[in-house]
Design a protein that fits this description.
2 copies of one chain form a homodimer.
Chain A (H helix, E strand, L loop, with lengths): L1 E7 L1 H4 L7 H11 L3 E8 L3 H14 L2 E5 L10 H9 L3 E3 L1 H13 L13 E3 L3 E3 L8 E6 L2 E6 L3 H19 L5 E10 L3 H7 L11 E7 L2 E10 L2 H19 L3 E4 L4 H12 L3 E5 L5 H6 L9 E6 L3 H6 L5 H7 L4 H15 L3 E7 L14 E8 L2 E8 L4 H25 L1
Parallel strand pairs in A: 1-2, 1-3, 3-8, 13-14, 13-15
Antiparallel strand pairs in A: 4-5, 6-7, 7-8, 9-11, 9-12, 10-11, 15-16, 16-17
Helix pairs in contact in A: 2-6, 3-4, 9-14
Chain lengths: 416, 416
């Protein structure tokens, strides 16, 4: 089955909004064995939309359109489809009742103009919108089928998952599906992964592995083709195990998993508490960790000691040490980690100190020089990092380096 | 002049990557008076690409294509354009030299396969790529002109700005341009803005104002039509002044300006120092503030006092107070702000305490209840906020509420 995606809206074609729906729908359709050949974006002009719909129906078996189903005058999808199919618009009483009920559940009267959202081309099948006022619909045209959904991503996704994908899959029950699983790793250069995984990365293999680097985290995507999602599971499991065997501890999680979740899981497993002392990362480690629900059981405090006075007074780093070796130094990183651990009475202490730039570099201490340290019952470990990029990138990469150091320490503690 | 954007790449049509180029190019073309009617995305199949190019040339005067100019076998833009135009590919010696030179400047030999990047359809004009190995080109086809650029956003943007836009503008020197300016504001409901700016928001007015809300920050976009960018400036200025007059202090900056930059500017203006004590925002305020270069002159420390012990020991909040009224309370917010200001010897103290959820709610203290407090020589002010959303949204909105409270305090201090 060949499909095309049509994104409808002047805000898209004018460039005021980036269309993310088309990519999302393509990936999900590919998952159930549908090939997507084209995306087209068109504004709110009925003539243009009719033409684009017609062209898509000539090329594809399935046309999935999003947008233009709202209650205002520039929402013209239903008119354009009716015109293309040469049929009239008809009121669907059941859909109207559901729109009314949605307004009622939000303790509002339905404005009169929303009534148009219950109009559909004659012969269309209405698709319920469980989370908004714009129902979708599907209708045959020539040898193709047109499915329309609202443009609001959350409404589109709900309708796609709950109705459209099962509906389409039923038409092609035997098409090969493509199922993916993402493993995430940190601290290994992409080129090294390429060497270690060379044979697995051949796209003719099933499953094969693709790598993608983003913000210093590398995603290993396992792509499997199978008769059904269920049949893909053992293939995915087998290759995931092989990856864990070859790559080992740099793999910190699956899916969209961040390093902070890996750390939080290990804190849960070990039941340990943590105190953090940040300088150049400026609170970013604390921000990430506190995005994890329930972290308050483990994270006691995070001292962003930007001034030297704070480093001495709160963390107990001797001022003469700072004067002698400078705030950006292995000695101070160690003293900060040990100081915050002692201050908080925590099991673990983590620290960062470095030069995020663009100013602040001195001789022998360039922008991007960062020390991260971790301390526990096992003693203190410090790593010297060289990060590149702008201020925000250096903060990001340094915070990740610190979290990964902490994660490796926790792995050792968990192993006993 | 009517234009169409063509985005070329299987990764786009498969949904592995969201296309941001088309929106960017549309907005920039609109700025110089070109109307964009369609975007089309197509994979790396020569047949499909030829067909899409042909359809675009029939509908538009200008077709701007990105992608498919790399050195690998699936980069087929140059072949497809040559086939459509019925001409052969020819080697451009000057372009080849430039590609070689680029490799040399990166201390590498040019791989043999990159030679294909110096092939262009006969009659095409080569567009230099100043930052990558893929030159673009433009060529006439029927009554249309096709311009191709690389798909890497940074390379595309550079080529668009430095060559394509001036080139296109020269063809339509008298077309009306559209120039925009964004003012950013916080703390006013969008509906209230709608009432105050009703007359300015009429799209037939020149300039008119459009509002867009994102993450609790509202952007007021002024859209002006004029004969040239220069002619637009007085129109934009006049409406910007009118907006500042009507909205006042909730406007905190222009462009992509965040609240933290507004705060940093005011700290620069007043020469004051700041200390922060965060609980529910977990380091986010520190993270944002330390994204601003040079903030170390003003920000002394940020204590993320997640545990009650840290609140007492570092910030001097009496433990009996926490026991009596709870950590999430006006009294504790005030004591945290005053405590961190005194501890650091800063001019200003800022604090947050609240329930970010999903757990932690108690009777009378629901998820989303947050207190923010600021203290200075003028005394202490505390505000009680009710935030909605998930954990990350509540953190985000609370940190913005705190920064805005600080900003308003600084405005008063700056006025003396």
């Amino acid at each position: 089955m060949k499909a095309e995606i049509l994104s409808i809206g002047s805000e898209l074609v004018l460039g005021e909004l980036v269309d993310t729906n088309a990519a999302y729908i393509s990936e999900r359709l590919r998952g159930i064995g549908v090939q997507v050949g084209f995306h087209t974006t068109v504004g709110d002009a009925e003539e243009d939309l009719c033409r684009a719909l017609g062209a898509a129906c000539e090329r594809a078996d399935l046309v999935v359109a999003t947008g233009g189903l709202g209650p205002t005058r520039d929402d013209i999808t239903r008119q354009a489809v009716a015109r293309l199919c040469g049929v009239a618009l008809e009121l669907d009483e059941k859909a109207l009742e559901e729109i009314r009920a949605l307004f009622k559940s939000r303790t509002r009267e339905m404005p009169e103009r929303n009534k148009v959202q219950a109009l559909f081309p004659h012969g269309a099948r209405v698709i319920r919108n469980e989370v908004g006022t714009a129902p979708g619909f599907c209708i045959a045209h020539g040898r193709s089928e047109i499915i329309t959904m609202p443009g609001v991503p959350s409404e589109m996704k709900r309708m796609l998952e709950s109705w459209v994908l099962p509906y389409v899959r039923e038409k092609i029950p035997d098409a090969e599906v493509i199922v993916t699983r993402d493993l995430r790793c940190f601290g290994v250069p992409e080129s090294e992964l390429g060497e270690k995984l060379h044979d697995l990365m051949d796209p003719t293999r099933n499953p094969y592995v693709a790598t993608q680097a983003s913000q210093a985290v590398i995603t290993l995507r396992i792509v499997a083709r199978a008769a059904s999602e269920r049949d893909a599971v053992p293939l995915l499991n087998e290759t995931a195990e092989e990856l864990r065997r070859r790559i080992g501890s740099p793999i910190f999680g699956e899916g969209r998993y961040g390093l902070e979740i890996g750390v939080a899981d290990l804190l849960d497993r070990t039941g340990m508490t943590l105190a953090v002392a940040e300088s150049c990362t400026g609170g970013l480690i604390g921000h990430w960790l506190t995005n994890v629900p329930g972290i308050s059981k483990h994270l006691l405090e995070d001292v962003v000691a930007y001034s030297n006075r704070a480093k001495s007074e709160i963390l107990g780093v001797p001022s003469e040490l700072i004067e002698r070796v400078g705030a950006v130094s292995e000695e101070v990183a160690r003293a900060m980690a040990e100081g915050v651990r002692a201050r908080a009475g925590a099991d673990l202490g983590l620290s960062t100190t470095g030069i995020a730039g663009p100013g602040g570099a001195t001789e022998g201490k360039p922008v991007g020089l960062v020390y991260v340290a971790v301390t526990s019952s096992r003693g203190t470990t410090c790593e010297k990092l060289h990060r590149w990029g702008d201020r925000e990138q250096i903060k990001d990469r340094s915070a990740k380096g610190a979290l990964d150091l902490l994660r490796r320490e926790l792995l050792k503690l968990a192993e006993g």
